[in-house]
TrEMBL record:
Gene3D superfamilies, A to Z: 3.40.1350.10
Name of this protein: DNA repair protein MmcB-related protein
Biological source species: Parasphingorhabdus marina DSM 22363
One Gene Ontology term of the molecular function aspect: nucleic acid binding
Native organism taxonomy: Bacteria, Pseudomonadati, Pseudomonadota, Alphaproteobacteria, Sphingomonadales
Amino acid sequence: MDQQDNDSQIMAELALLESDAQPLDGARAVARGVARLFLRHDILVLSEVSLRNRRRADLMGIDAKGQIVIVEIKVARGDLLGDSKWTEYLDYCDRFYWAVPADFDHSPLDRPEFLPERAGLVVADAYDAEIIRPAATHSLASARRKTETLRIARRAMGRLAIANDWIDPSLHDHG
């Protein structure tokens, strides 16, 4: 199966899931818009991925070159300004993005404490997204990349097995 067929199959599966879905808002809407944007950039993501440092990435994905991307979604100004632990994600990705809804004042993300020279910015709604500022690449060490890639793959397979009703979710920690 070539890449175009694979992308078409993924989009068809997304459409099927959306047909039964409830309306999206807030972080879920932003996550879907980012996932659609990233798919066009050949980055596939999982939501709510636990990291070894006890943090949980809102979205974590892998691009076609094997680079790991983490996205932190913020839909409330207070949540953004009160988040002092977000830098703990940086040790687990090559590229880091903030994602916010279209009507969100993202000017605080230009402040030095939010590392605008490193952190990218995506503005999204439930249907699409746009990269406002690309994320700088800070390559992970090979050993860390391998570990995280295997963890993402195993987590994705576990979630798929549960979705297909192959395994009992209570018997699998799929993150």
